[in-house]
TrEMBL record, chain A:
Chain segments annotated as transmembrane: none
Protein name as it appears in the record: (R)-2-hydroxyglutaryl-CoA dehydratase, beta subunit, putative
A Pfam entry, by short name: HGD-D
InterPro entries recorded: FldB/FldC_alpha/beta, YjiM-like
Molecular-function GO terms, alphabetical: hydro-lyase activity; iron-sulfur cluster binding
Record organism: Syntrophomonas wolfei subsp. wolfei (strain DSM 2245B / Goettingen)
């Protein structure tokens, strides 16, 4: 790894503590990722990004700031990145996915807060992640009570803009979200000092759509049997797309998709054709949370699709590119984002329809519906999902877990028993 | 044909050896090394049966220690093994409640002992043998003494499901001079409530069997019966059903391959 010590020191990071993280990550990544057989060549780029995870992209962001650009940190797939890029800014997904940061969050948050929020707050307060220290502004939202209140704590640290995400999807809610996007445009213009017009927003819409199209290609390849890429690798691609440069992200995902399509033509895969095909549905898995994927795939089953924010919810729908005026574009953005189905909405039967559709498209043998510990929304919704899937004879298991390793053996037993049921 | 089934749990390792016409079983504390415990079980089974290691055709291993044990021909989850073991002893059973040292499970089974669905406690000691062990220590008892020491007539309800909070709650209860037997009945009730809730969520079909080390404790059986509202069967060898299931699964595989 290149030497980033000076850069980290300039950011005011806690270098001693950060060294601990830098020491454990390569080993964890090696054990989970590099032990896999027949990985696509296209994964080399993502392996490289992980090997320099706190160096290469943060350096680009700092260079961007040096040249007068602004960086916005985000925490949710409902934040329209298009607005930020239209103003020449960089948007980067920040969610924390490591147990390493949880204790830092627990210093200020109640114990019954989900690990994603704890890790995100801890990463900032402990100053052990450059991504959390670089942004000029955090763009947050109110998709759950835990996040809503955590932002009030982080607002003491960094300028914060909150987007009010509707809780229902009536016409007036879509209109309200369009108004939020309009406000957000004003905020971004003020921070960047750049006006957003129909031309720049139109280009940004195409830029982000292209990234979505590339990810859709990678996911489409996973519909094949044998599956040409592991669930772990596909998850890593999505995770890195949250903060990589969107044009490069699209290019890399397209390169990977080319290779996967070639593999399909040759009939080669990374799991035997008869390996159980599993869908993961539920809460996001922020980098470096690979825990459940690793357990499932180590037991010989292939994860072929994630119905989650680090999966289909991130890229499934495109923004209408034919919108030509700013008003039309704002409306098109609102419509696209309101198609995403998160458990923070009610009613949310469209999410169940998504799961049914994905199970069919990806020829899924069983569903592992999972949520991070203390995520009330997704864990409550799991009851309804189980009812519907059971009616349709689709085997399903619900797993609640966090970032720690302590339930690893228990989870292994549960997943293994679930696979035994599928294989009989 | 000779097979062995081993269930290496967090507290105890159990084993069954089955040969045409006879079977033997053995149990030892798992201790710190699941690997050594598994080996010791094999040695004991061979000694009890008078058979030699090279006569054993298949060894199936289950329980949390299954991954560490290298002499397994196959590893199977305890969920499948308990289902198979109980089906052999009580074919009418459709729901199995298994409470072991570190987890509790509810298994819904079909007519042939196949697993239809199951539920397992999330990462938390509430409703497990570990919970009772911590509480027994707080009460100055061994976990094996709890069953006989309870007095349900003087029931002291424990409101905390959490092992940490429940421990301070019973210390407080003792300090207020409440009878020990009543506190213990309250602990059993707490485990019963917790596990019954998990069972109800999955759906309870009769008959119901109760297995695992905690099933030895008649107080927990009583509490579960009260909570679920049905009679529960505790197999005489309630700790061995997983090992029995593993041995039977090994036996069936061999027979199929013949």
């Amino acid at each position: 790894m290149a030497d980033y010590q000076q850069m980290w020191a300039n950011l005011g990071m806690d270098l001693e503590k950060h060294d601990v993280l830098c020491e454990v990550l390569p080993e964890a990544f090696g054990g989970v990722y590099l032990t896999q057989q027949d990985r696509p060549k296209g994964m080399d780029f993502y392996d490289f990004v992980v090997s320099e995870i706190h160096g290469v992209r943060p350096a680009e962001m700092l260079q961007h700031q040096k040249e007068g650009g602004k960086v916005f940190g985000t925490f949710c797939v409902y934040v329209p990145d298009e607005v930020v890029f239209a103003a020449g800014g960089i948007a980067a997904g920040l969610c924390g996915g490591s147990q390493f940061w949880v204790s830092g969050g627990e210093k200020v948050l109640p114990a019954n807060t989900c690990p994603l929020i704890k890790a995100s707050v801890g990463a900032r307060l402990d100053k052990t992640c450059p991504f959390f220290l670089i942004p000029d502004m955090y763009v947050a939202e109110n998709t759950c009570d835990g996040k809503k209140k955590a932002w009030e704590i982080l607002a003491g640290e960094v300028p914060m803009h909150i987007i009010d995400i509707p809780q229902m999807k009536r016409e007036r809610d879509v209109a309200a979200f369009a108004a939020e996007i309009r406000d957000f445009i004003g905020v971004v213009e003020k921070v960047t000092g750049k006006k957003i017009n129909a031309e720049s927003l139109g280009e940004a819409i195409k830029l982000i759509n292209n990234k979505r199209r590339a990810l859709q290609r990678v996911y489409n390849a996973r519909k094949a049997s044998p599956v040409p890429i592991s669930g772990k690798d596909a998850l890593l691609v999505t995770q890195i797309n949250f903060y990589d440069d969107p044009a490069r992200a699209a290019q890399m995902a397209n390169n990977l998709a080319d290779e996967l399509e070639q593999r399909i033509n040759n009939g080669t895969g990374v799991f035997p054709e008869n390996a159980p095909r599993i869908m993961i549905s539920g809460t996001p898995m922020a980098i470096p949370n690979w825990k459940l994927h690793h357990i499932v795939e180590s037991l010989g089953a292939a994860i072929v699709v994630e119905e989650s924010c680090t999966g289909t919810r991130y890229f499934e729908n495109l923004v209408d590119e034919t919108a030509s005026t700013l008003d039309e574009q704002i409306r098109a953005l609102a419509e696209r984002y309101m198609k995403t189905n998160c458990a923070c909405f009610t009613p949310n039967s469209a999410r169940i329809d998504d799961i049914i559709r994905l199970a069919d498209e990806y020829k899924v043998d069983g569903i592992i519906d999972t949520n991070l510990q203390f995520c009330n929304l997704y864990s409550t919704e799991s009851y309804l999902i189980k009812q519907v899937m059971t009616e349709r004879n689709l085997p399903i298991i619900h797993i609640e877990t966090d970032y720690s390793e302590q339930d690893f053996e228990q989870l292994r037993t549960r997943v293994e028993a679930f696979l035994e049921m599928l294989r009989k | 044909m000779i097979v062995i089934g081993i269930d290496i749990g967090s507290v105890a390792a159990k084993g069954y050896i089955i040969s045409s016409g006879s079977h033997h079983r053995a149990m030892i504390p798992t201790g710190w090394s699941p690997r050594e415990a598994g080996q010791a079980i094999i040695d004991q089974l061979l000694e009890a049966s008078g058979l030699e290691r090279n006569q054993v055709e298949q060894i199936y291993v289950t329980g949390y220690g299954r991954v560490a044990f290298e002499h397994a021909d196959k590893t199977v989850t305890e969920i499948k093994c308990h289902a198979r073991g109980v089906a052999e002893l009580y074919p009418e059973v459709r729901t199995i409640i298994d409470i072991g040292g570190q987890d509790s499970k509810v298994i819904s089974t079909g007519e042939k002992g196949q697993v239809l669905d199951f539920a397992m406690n999330d990462k938390c000691a509430a409703g497990t043998g570990r919970f009772l062990q911590v509480m027994a220590t707080a009460l100055g008892l061994d976990v094996s003494e709890l069953g006989d020491a309870e007095d349900p007539r003087q029931m002291q309800t424990i409101s905390s499901m959490c092992t940490v909070f429940a421990e301070s709650e019973i210390i407080g209860s003792l300090a207020r001079g409440n009878p020990k037997g009543g506190i213990i009945a309250g602990l059993h009730q707490s485990v019963g409530k917790r596990v019954a809730a998990m069972a109800r969520r999955m759906g309870i079909k009769e008959q119901v069997a109760f297995t695992g080390g905690v099933a030895i404790n008649p107080g927990v059986k009583r509490a579960l019966e009260e909570e679920i509202g049905t009679r529960i069967i505790v197999p005489q060898a309630c700790q061995y059903t997983g090992a029995l299931g593993a041995a039977l699964l090994a036996w069936e595989t061999l027979r199929r391959d013949l």
